[in-house]
Amino acid sequence: xxxxxxxxxxxxxxxxxxxxxxxxxxxxxxxxxxxxxxxxxxxxxxxxxxxxxxxxxxxxxxxxxxxxxxxxxxxxxxxxxxxxxxxxxxxxxxxxxxxxxxxxxxxxxxxxxxxxxxxxxxxxxxxxxxxxxxxxxxxxxxxxxxxxxxxxxxxxxxxxxxxxxxxxxxxxxxxxxxxxxxxxxxxxxxxxxxxxxxxxxxxxxxxxxxxxxxxxxxxxxxxxxxxxxxxxxxxxxxxxxxxxxxxxxxxxxxxxxxxxxxxxxxxxxxxxx
Length: 273
Description:
By secondary structure, the protein is of the alpha+beta class. It is built from nine helices and six strands. The chain folds into two domains: 4-90, no CATH class; 124-266, 2-Layer Sandwich (Alpha-Beta Plaits).
């Protein structure tokens, strides 16, 4: 494709060529100049009658030059526009990437604010909010709910014998077992250390007992591989029911904690891991 400069120059020169041609045609049409045998003789006769045509003959040159300048300006404008469009496209892509990264960062920050970094479960702050909302919802609709408090057995012995890294792996694997026992609508949180809380919305006493049985059955499996060894998974479980055992989150938590502690106290202290 030709550049605007050459295109404008050619158009200007062709337009300028019309002036001497039209002038010669008018002289010929008005009879001022007689027809000649050859084109050369005609051109000579026209210029002999009107010497101004020598000046008019330069019109294609000057108009071509002026049009060429306009073409140069047009080329520069096109190049500038292309450069601006490229810059805008680059900046738009950069801004889009920055927004996507910011969105990912916000999602990550939001997740970190509500989840335990070790197990990926809900943290204590978020779990308490879930419990408050669940109690409010149950009170409004006249539903029941169950709160399960779980405390690992002999976790200190695992840390003492195999190290804290192995203890962390045990907590992560135990959290996965809790998720395996729970329903999609249940909420699981790490309350702190080796304590966990499971919220069972719209659950009666038989439903809570069924959950506890399912969890104990899962824990009675082959144990948890912590790297240096495979250790059994055991936990003491306490359950509180709304509204039978309490009408507010604090009372339910205290009731489930006391029941869990009584279960733990009744257990015979097993041999070290």
